């Protein structure tokens, strides 16, 4: 390991320690969310992430505003592998539900099918979330009630001929408040979907597993745009802290890679072929 890499690793370990300390001492008096429909936090996970999952769940259950429900969706075959640390959080308000295994799509699709008349907020299972994470999404949604709201977003870039530039040329992790057709939500930071924000085809598992199986961010962006909804980036730039050991198995190695030859570009090309480029 180079000196630079060693220093970066040491800095990451320090941040992990600080976040765990903050979480263990986090005491918040959660306030009502004030939205016009129920607010549900929804996420999924799978066995390689279970050892650290309780940390993320604690982050989500200790927020400055209260969700009406926090649901963890687990594939039927994985339910028996849930740890006691995860199961015990049911006493703190966590709901655990079994569902079909549609991989990363489990964080949103089952909740949409169950009841689309709710504000649904997705989170990843491997990250630290601040106590005001949910509050930031909700407040931004109140400012733009029809928008899909994201803590982390990229800006899609178009070529001179109007076609979509390769994913690696997009402006990544934008810093400012932004809303528009070119703003692309990334799920890792957390995304809020107002009731009926997505096209009716959003829950078509046969279709998304056929044309976009490994890029749910791409799928949900298209489903929002097909329903004439924009993404609103809360701002400023979001820093992501992932727990130790959670990246041994991830979609990152599939979706990122050489320009025009990675999972995201293949998914985008498939979506354009199926639906066209959103206007």
From TrEMBL:
Instruction: List the SUPFAM superfamilies.
Output: Nucleotide-diphospho-sugar transferases
Name the chain's protein. Answer: Glycosyltransferase family 2 protein
Does the keyword Transferase belong to this entry? yes
Keywords for this protein: Transferase
User: Which is one GO molecular function term here?
Assistant: transferase activity
> What superkingdom heads the lineage?
Bacteria
Q: Which InterPro entries match?
A: Nucleotide-diphossugar_trans (IPR029044)
Originating species: Tritonibacter aquimaris
